[in-house]
Sequence to fold (250 residues):
Amino acid sequence: MTILDVLTIPKDDAIAFTFFTGYMAMLAASIFFFFERSRVSDKWKLSLLVSALITFIAAVHYYYMRDYYLATGENPTSLRYIDWTLTVPLMCVEFYLLTKAAGAKKSLLWKLILASVWMLVAGYIGEAFNPEGGSSTHSVLWGVLSTVGYVYILYAAWFGEVAQLAQKSDSAVVKQGVRTLAWFVLVGWAIYPIGYMCMPGGWLNTAFGWGSENVDLFYNIADAINKIGFGLVVYNIAITSTKSSQPAAA
Ligand SMILES: *C/C=C(C)/C=C/C=C(C)/C=C/C1=C(C)CCCC1(C)C
Fold:
């Protein structure tokens, strides 16, 4: 393998393509969120910084994952989970910041973070310690354990503390925005288990023969939707409420 092999994106490799465009999109989003901080009122600046950090941390990981994939042809599982272990808790921070004005406590933040780390540690064990050739028992067991953490966050966002606090918020923009983020958790996050089930021994792998290369394809698509989309929703809340709190120009 020469450096040129690594630098040349094979034209027929959709996964290499999504690694490259994913990297570029995350980087562009980070710059956007970071510079737009200056246009929102002070109370929203931290939320936008967190949005920028989420996409920036992902961009750095994509840079390395892309090379790892091109050099080895394998799924960069460890890099992937390091990325998620940093970025998913930051998404929990976004929920906390949005509901803080309505009375969210630190304990809510910690519960969400704990559930997300549980979800990711179980998922990592499921993928990284999948026996050679794949084991259904192994992938189902850890997949189900991981889903418990996912369902907890889903519940919090739709019916639990996060949803209840958002309802109490005196801002219609926050109320609507948190609901949109809950949709991201329901639909966007559900793409990840689909990718997971494509690994050897996974249900989609054994039932339909979906190869393990699809793991990365689903993860890359889901990351772009969720990290950039999530950030844009937060951005929209911030910019809309900044505008509505400013006195109309004479
Ligand atoms: C930016 C990264 C995000 C939003 C990652 C989210 C990841 C998940 C929601 C992963 C969920 C999984 C399950 C629910 C079961 C199978 C194992 C996982 C970890 C893929």
In short: The CA atoms of residues 19 and 78 lie 15 Å apart. The mean pLDDT is 94. Residues 84, 87-88, 119-120, 123, 126, 143, 146-147, 150, 189, 192-193, 196, 223, 226-227 surround retinal (CB under 6 Å). The chain has eleven helices and no strands.
